[in-house]
Amino acid sequence: MSHAGAGLDDDQKAVLTDLNQRLSMLTTTFEKNLLADTNDLAVVFDDVAELDGLTEGEISAAVQNAADRGLDGRYVLTLTLFTGHPYLSTLTNRESRRRLLAASRARGSRGNEHDNREVLREIVRLRAERAALLGYSSHAAYVTSDETAGSPEAVHDLLRRLAVPAAANARREQEALQELIDAEGASFPVEAHDWAFYTERVRQARYDLDRTALRPFFEAERVLRDGVFRAATQLYGITFAERADLPAYHPDARVFEVSNADGSALGLFVLDLYTRDTKRGGAWMNSIVSQSRLRGTHPIVVNNLNVPKPAPGQPTLLTLDEVTTLFHEFGHALHGLFATVTYPHFAGTNVFRDFVEFPSQVNEMWIYWPEILAAYARHVDTDELLPAEVVAKLRESETFNQGFATSEYLAAAWIDQAWHSLSVEQAQAVDDVAAFEAEALADIGLDNPVVPTRYSSTYFAHVFSGGYSAGYYSYIWSEVLDADTVEWFHENGGLTRDNGDRFRERLLGVGGSKDPLAAYRDFRGRDAEIEPLLKRRGLAD
Ligand SMILES: [Zn+2]
Q1: Residues 377 and 411 in one domain
Q2: Within a domain: residue 58?
Q3: Span from the CA of 360 to the centroid of ligand 1 (angstroms)
Q4: Which residue out of 219, 329, 357, 437 is catalytically annotated?
Q5: Known catalytic membership, residue 529
Q6: Which of 44, 105, 456, 518 is most buried, by CB atoms within 10 Å?
Q7: What is the per-residue pLDDT across 33-46, written as a single tens digit (0 to 9) for each?
């Protein structure tokens, strides 16, 4: 394995060092340019009427943004990282929506000092050169050789197979939006900046749900014990005992001792639920001690969330998104707890990037599992069960707008693959970034102008300044495995010890010590198929 360049002679090593240094500089430049252009392209409005549809809070933020820029009396909307913007779903003024999306899509390609086109072309060339030096045909070949996928061809094959139904479904969604626009007597063809706005109207009409009214059904302690823990106990026989006597690194971080069905110790689970000033945002799992037979250590895994802390004496009521996050992160925790390999390097979640999300995604399936849901989703005051018609609507709404969401994601994943599958000669031959991107999207059939890519090359930070080059595909790669596994549980009786033990022994416990796809085959009895994912996203025929 020559991934780190171990087989190179001294001259080659020197070349490699130079390439890595230059690349590191270029990726930093890319990031700085993007930040500056994102800032410069914040959209300025003169009249509050142009912001109709935004909430009072959003408008006062726009006033503050303007004041921060010395533009008192005006309104400034700042851009998000991806192509779209949350406000596109509520801004009623069509011209305001158009300006916001146009600004977002212009980033890094305006011919000014923050232009990223030259920068990313050089990044692509140098990554291809580095791959060649290390014996690979392309950067994508180099990256995927160390992933579950194994080769760019396997990735391309999957993306192409998903693109066809995704694009077809986005077309159908587009027709529904056009019907709504026509029915209102407007006479324009739907454009990219209209998508979110009309989609939100269709969503409200179809799935009229007040999501904040759900929160009393999701009291945190009940979700944890009667939802997350209960599902794990029924599947794997493991039990949880809170150890208030074991202080963690912060008073809000609670420690639970986790035991196997036979009473033997498995490890410690730490839950750090609440947000606080010194904590970084988002949700994640980390392990303090990795399991290792060599070192004889038991794992300690931590789940971090950022749930606002309620007033003293008040219960913590979660949103459905937070419930999902709790189940998801606990899936990562189980992966860490169940590791049974000898070397700590391979334990639990130290696995392939295109595999690591798979166990956590699978654990989300128990959120709606009837007997689990009936145990945890009970009104905090009345103990009333979350009504069945609400559950049905929530499930139905999961396939809504998935043609668009899948298409915009696949388009970005394809752009990433297109750039990073180039040989050195091919990379040198590209002279027009926009044309290259357009050609790639046409090639895979994701060139509908109404459904733009989630990221265009010049602001695709994940792959040109973050750690996801040739790897943006990995989210959907692991979701294919996830959906196929969920189907396996359904076919085999669901929430049972037999099923849990099989999943634990053949997949979760294996970590990175074995080829994950071989482990998957061993668990599933065949390779993963994409149909369950298509069904889940409402993309199947
Ligand atoms: Zn995750």
Answers
A1: no
A2: yes
A3: 6
A4: 329
A5: no
A6: 456
A7: 999 999 999 999 99
